[in-house]
Design goal:
This protein is α+β, with helices and mostly antiparallel strands and about 100 residues long. The chain is rod-shaped and about 85 Å long.
């Protein structure tokens, strides 16, 4: 189920709430994409888990935007530097000409 949900909504954090999850299963669900797991007998931990999952999702989204903006800037600078010889010139006052 986690894999299907990850495919449908990869940026949505998922928290598994279970009444009978062992340590091994808990590790498996987190490894398979859950942001966290909460036992039904310890629902007091759910608000903290939700808050952390939302904060993590926001950081991930911000990192993705930052990476996209960096890549776009890198492409612009690379294109500029590839053509820098035709974009730059200097003028000699003594000789009265451009180089």
């Amino acid at each position: 189920m986690l894999r299907v949900l990850r495919d449908l909504a990869p940026d949505t954090p998922m928290i598994v709430v279970s009444g009978a999850i062992g340590e091994e299963r808990a590790a498996w669900v987190v490894r398979d994409g859950a942001a966290d797991y909460v036992l039904k007998r310890n629902l007091a931990r759910l608000p903290e888990a939700v808050t952390r999952a939302i904060a993590d999702a926001r950081r991930t989204a911000l990192a993705r935007v930052t990476e996209f903006e960096f890549d776009a800037a890198y492409e612009r600078v690379t294109a500029l530097l590839a053509n820098v010889d035709s974009a730059l010139s200097s003028y000699s006052l003594a000789e009265g000409r451009y180089y």
